[in-house]
Structure formats: C-alpha cells, structure tokens
Amino acid sequence: MKMTKLSLSALIALPLVALAGCHSYKETGINFIRQNNADLKGCFQEAAARNPNLKGQMELAFEIDPTGKVNRFNLTKDEYKDPILADCVKIKATAWTFPAPTSGKNEVFTYGFTQ
User: Fold this and answer.
1) pLDDT digits (tens, 9 = 90+) for 62-110
2) What is the pLDDT of residues 12-31, one digit of tens each?
3) Integer Cα distance of 107 and 88 in angstroms
4) Given phi > 0 = left and psi -120 to 50 = alpha, else beta, which region is 80?
5) Which of 23, 40, 47, 111 could form a cystine bridge with 85, CB 3.0-4.6 A?
6) Which fold has domain 8-14+23-114?
7) Euclidean distance between CA atoms 27 and 70, whole angstroms
8) Residue 78 in contact with residue 60, Cβ under 8 Å?
C-alpha cells in the first residue's frame, strides 16, 4: 500500500476535498480523517507542549468494517517516540466511525503524515 504523506500543518489546514465519481475507499478514509483532524491536532498540540522539538513521521493503518467502524488500527510507523502521543492518536482514531464502505466489505488503508 502506498502511504499518503502530509505535514502536520497540512493535516491541520487541509480543506475538505470534494470527491467526485469513482474512487477507492482509501480516498474516502483520508477525506474523513481530514474532516476530523481536530482530534489529532489536539494530540499533537499536547505533545508539542511536552516537547517543542517534536518532529517525525507517523503512519496509521486502518481496517474499516462494513458499517464504518474501525475494526483494526495500528501505528505502522511512529518516529515521534512519545507514548502519550501514540495513545492519544489511537484513542481518537479508534473512536471514529467512517463512512460505510460501498463495497459492503472490510476496507484497509493507511494514512501518514510528517511534522
């Protein structure tokens, strides 16, 4: 799977992108994460208060069930080395309910970003 990389500032500042026509569930998932970036922004703001030099990359891996619930979640890359940040991201991300996949099947995608 190809990882989508964004800077944290891009993660926070990206507007909702309208998706038209046929697209993969990954696009739907990424669009949903962008809509809900305030959850992750809060985690990173707290981490930056603990460590002003916070830099690195993080990749989130999701498996979304047919109802849109997060079936599986994993941090496949975490260069921040901040367990409180990792826990915060996990708590926020696993609480989300994504749009139900139109395939009616579990969908898997990754989402990565850099600060």
Assistant:
1) 999 999 999 999 999 999 999 999 999 999 999 999 999 999 999 999 9
2) 433 333 333 446 899 999 99
3) 23
4) alpha
5) 47
6) TolA/TonB C-terminal domain (3.30.2420)
7) 16
8) no
- The answer to whether the predicted template modeling score (pTM) of the entire model surpasses 0.85 is no
- Residues near 24 by beta carbon (within 8 Å), at least 6 away in sequence: 109
Those residues whose C-beta lies under 8 Å from the C-beta of residue 70, and which sit 6 or more positions away, are 62, 63, 64, 93, 94, 95, 96, 97, 98
Least confident of 9-13, 37-41, 47-51, 104-108: 9-13
Please state the domain extents for the chain: 8-14+23-114
